Amino acid sequence: MVKILDRYIFKSLFGPFVFGVLSFLIIMAIDPLYNALSYIIIRGKPTSIVLKWFGYKMLSKDLIFVFPMSVLMSTLIVMGNFSKLSEVTAMKSGGISFFRIVRPVMVFTFFVSIMTFVVYEKIVPNAIEQEEIYKTFKLQNMPRFITKENIFLREDKDKFLYIRRVNFYNRTFNYLMLYYIEDGLLKKTLASRTGRINKDDTWILEQGSENTFDENGFVSNVQKFTNRELKLNNTLIEIENFDKEDPDAMTFIELYRKIKNLAKHGVLNLNKYLVALYQKTAMPFSCMIFGLVGAAMGTTSKRSGTFTNLGLSVIMIFVYYVLMSFLKSYGEAGRILPIFATWMPNLMFLVFGIFLASKVKN
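RE: above sequence
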């Protein structure tokens, strides 16, 4: 009977969940669709490019809220129907507790949480990047830069790197300087007028010199060279992405490496990136919390219809979003720990869900 109950609840949840995903995607599409029509009709942009931008826009960062909302709505609908048809009462009469009834709901939301994390990792970062590329360079016709100038990075604990100009497309650079510091004093510099970067991230220095300094800071020795190989701790990709500002456009691993790289270069304020890192796990986990809240609320609201539950889901997610945005700003400002800033909304809704579930049980 237990396995039959699990399958029955799983099957009951699947349909409303899919309906919720489609419904919320349609709601999300209203504003991007208006902008897409504006690009085609008013600005005369090619339809194929606009449709690609629209597709990437629909798969960008707002997509992550669709799954928690759909979980909340589906559990409200299913548990509400169970309660309205007295199925919950019949299950309890058969010796099945409310928490046993909720167990397949939590298993279902666990798989949704895994799916949400995968989408957050594999789809959303690339969609955000591509959406920005299509919007900026193909729809707004802004020039695309493949070079970066005046780069100054920490190469090691006592070694700093300066590059006047680097071209990431043809992997060349102009004027590179390495500064070697010892006990707070400049001991050596390695300079190169031009050069290139091999695919294995070996830097080929051309027309350069190695300068050694004495204790008074004067040049004591100069060794010129026409060609020299150099291995840097910073790869070309790390240099290109060093000032990449949108953490949502990075995967969990990329963001973790970004934080380590910034810390290595002596950047002290990492709150913005730490908040984004913790949020990549907090947001998927919210699906399980909303599953518990929806199951408890659905059991107590016997007369709620589908559209009522749809509206209730939007309101609750809106409250969650406002709370998350408020705490996120505090976390990025350093007023609270980044991990608290991202997980506090989950903890608050979890307490709310446990409170509702205990009331249903009693």
